[in-house]
Design a protein that fits this description.
single chain; 265 residues; alpha+beta; 9-stranded antiparallel sheet
Amino acid sequence: MTIGVDRSALEPVTDVSVGDWIAPRLGPFGGSVGSVVPRSYAAYARILHPVPDTHYPTLPPARWADVCAATGRQPHALMQWQAIAGVTEARTGEAVTRTMAWSGGEPEVGNLERDTLLAQCRVLADHTEPPDQPCFFALWEGFGWIHGSPSVVRIGSSRSIPPAFPRDVLDGPRLRLPHRNYLLFSGPLMAATDIGDLSALWRQSPSLFWPVDRSWWVATEIDFDSTIVAGSSELIAAVLAEPTLEAWPVGPDDSLAHDGDTVNA
């Protein structure tokens, strides 16, 4: 299904009570799936963020399974980057030396890159009825680019970066969840791929988004290097079957904390 993006339809939400249903359905704040996704859905999937090539950025990103094959680790639903990439840290006084068995790049934390986000949204569109119903998009208030900067150095030059949103939006109400506050917007589903593309310097996926009927939920927690999708069994089966996504089935009690990988520990 192809859906065009009408950015003019993306509007700030001032009545943040539309998110009052979320917090009571979250588990205790921490590293579990259920701490960032409401515990009211039939099924859940974890989409692993792609691994860019630091030496050849134009090449397609690697999958976590590729990293496991290179480092001799075991791929599984709860694998953690530090474990499969062989990350070690050694401290000498105040200096910390970090090494990896994996020689490539690392997945982004708190952000799902645009091509993967687009593929995810296409699957969501096929399981949204009606497909053009509005969605809510939550953006963590702590991203620096939201507030702008008086001076940013880029390739030998410097320029100021204005705030990404008008002052009334930045000063407006917040969707408040445990330990996280968000700016809230509404618009068409595919606006998810552009909501953070408001500066030439940064691309950012929504931190959370869901349709008006709450039939599914997507969370890219700022401290996670994977994105969680929740919804019907049919939706999650489609997410897992989508070849452009590296996804695994998970449950709300599963741990995505750094020490949650007991297989590759």
